[in-house]
Design brief:
The complex is a heterodimer of chains A (about 300) and B (about 325). Chain A is an all-alpha fold and about 300 residues long. Helices cover about 75% and strands about 0% of the residues of chain A. Chain A is globular, with a radius of gyration of 26 Å. In chain B, α3 crosses α14 (about 285-310) and α8 crosses α9 (about 180-205). Chain B has two domains: about 25-70; about 95-320, MetI-like fold (Orthogonal Bundle), CATH 1.10.3720.10. The two termini of chain B are about 35 Å apart. Chain B has helices at about 5-10, 15-20, 20-70, 85-95, 95-130, 135-140, 140-145, 150-160, 180-205, 210-220, 225-255, 255-260, 270-280, 285-310, 315-320, and strands at about 70, 80-85. The chains are: A mainly alpha (about 300), B mainly alpha (about 325). The interface between A and B is large, with 104 and 103 residues.
Amino acid sequence: MTAITSTSAAPASARARTRRASGPPARALAGWTVANLVILGLSLLPLLWLVSLSFKTPASISDGGFWPSHWTTANYRGIFTTSLFTRALINSIGIALIATLLAVVIGSMAAYAIARLAFPGKGLLVGLSLLIAMFPQISLVSPLFNLWRQLGLFDTWPGLIIPYLTFSLPLAIYTLSAFFREIPWDLERAAEVDGATPLQAFMKVIAPLAAPGMVTTAILVFIFCWNDFLFAISLTSTNSARTVPAAIAFFTGASQFAEPIGSIAAAAVIITIPIIVFVLLFQRRIVAGLTSGAVKG
Amino acid sequence: MGAPAGGATVTEPGRPVAANPGPAAAKARAAASARTRAERRLGWALCAPAAIVIVAVTAYPIGYAIYLSLQRYDLRFPGASKFVGLSNYGTVLSSSLWWQALAITMIIAAISVAIELVLGMGLALVMQRALFGRGLIRTVVLIPYGIVTVVAAFGWKYAWTPNTGYLSGLFGDSAPLTERTWGIAVIILAEVWKTTPFMALLLLAGLALVPDDLQRAAKVDGAGAWARFVRITLPLMKPAILVALLFRLLDAFRIFDNIYILTGGAADTRSVSILGYDNLFTALNLGIGSSLSVLIFIVVAIIAFIFVRLFGAAAPGREAQP
């Protein structure tokens, strides 16, 4: 058809047609291959580097090579024999799990109300949680530091769970309310016609349907809590609540000035494992969760 | 009671059914308003825990921070605390450290978000259009997004550490992290690497809103790929781009983890968050630290306000309305 309007385009479009018949053009294939490989390489490079460092012997750490010349698991054995790391790992897992659970439960309640019910003050809550999503955490560090010392929450699990819960609630509410709006609500009305109260309709009909959204939200919130560093170094002082990111920053080597690079790399790799597991298992959900709240509207 | 309905009969004589709703409608209306009230109560009850947590852990501490910022409060001499009015703010605002940290933070935020927007758009286009491997790319880019910032920062730090890192020989024998300009460049690199996937995913969702028909129509009209991107894709994606920019800009303004690990704030690479942290935990000055907290909060509020006013990027607030 283009051949009619432009004679010079005719041979090109003809060529394109024959190419399309035998699959995509080779140049496009090559281009996408290069683009994919570049993205793949750049995304994985820093992580591969840490993996490599974590398997290097102390002597070969400073040889500048990307891959270890001598492989060793001494760094991993080393960190798992110190309570500094094992205790921090327990703290990280416990604190992140509890904060996630609370955020999903409290967030689901609010998100259901926001997605489904008409009540005054809804806009205020949405605006408030948007505000929190952008709130500079450092602004809370000094007052919470002082408050927590007075309340006895400093250097405890609740002392970290509470701020994590607060900062993950906006994320939870947005993601969940986006998911909740996708649910076929006629089912809820059907349940209410059958005599269920709005609360029963929520518990028996909607909650099971909302489970996928809740799993997604839980993953996003867990990643957020797992990632935190500022509260973890500011509101803890000992092993009793310090999480892994904070503990790594305080790892000390043989001398005061030598950073234990191998141990830090090993600990870094260990706390990346759950992230990789989540990404591999729930890739679609994470993408859906991240994009659901952001664009609609 | 029946008066409004009677009025309706005059104007709409052809609809006698609506003319006299009678007591049944009144009962329905009463039931509806009871329902409305129950719905309101349930709405408030369901939102209460979230609202209480949010207010208790942010609004109250911010108020407390304002109170602390008006005190002379040195943690080494807690007995010597006293009300000093705005003098802490005077100290901070007349200090070159604050202005320098503010400038560094703005520079890092602006440059990294600008780079992220360009790279993120490219990444989003690859994730949407690539002939193959889209699933793989969407999976792989989630690793920078999900990885702990401190972990990634250590990766970048050791990459540039002289004698150790694979990148350290790139620019001769220098130690980039001990030097201001290069230090900031590495901080921006770490920030861009970590957050470009997030930007790309937000933009990918925006790309999905651009109708294929429009693209095809433009193609038939002879528009090239670039013209289609600039004339069709970008304008239609404007809301998504603005939301992504606002989110990332305010997020980048809070930058802490990367700087703490990469340079520790040495060589004048402190961001405002690092400065606040140092005043609290190194100088142990709660009064000054709190006034920094309040000032940072105000700056963030100003940025958000300007952004929303200038570009009307209120979409994230509006979206939650059904």
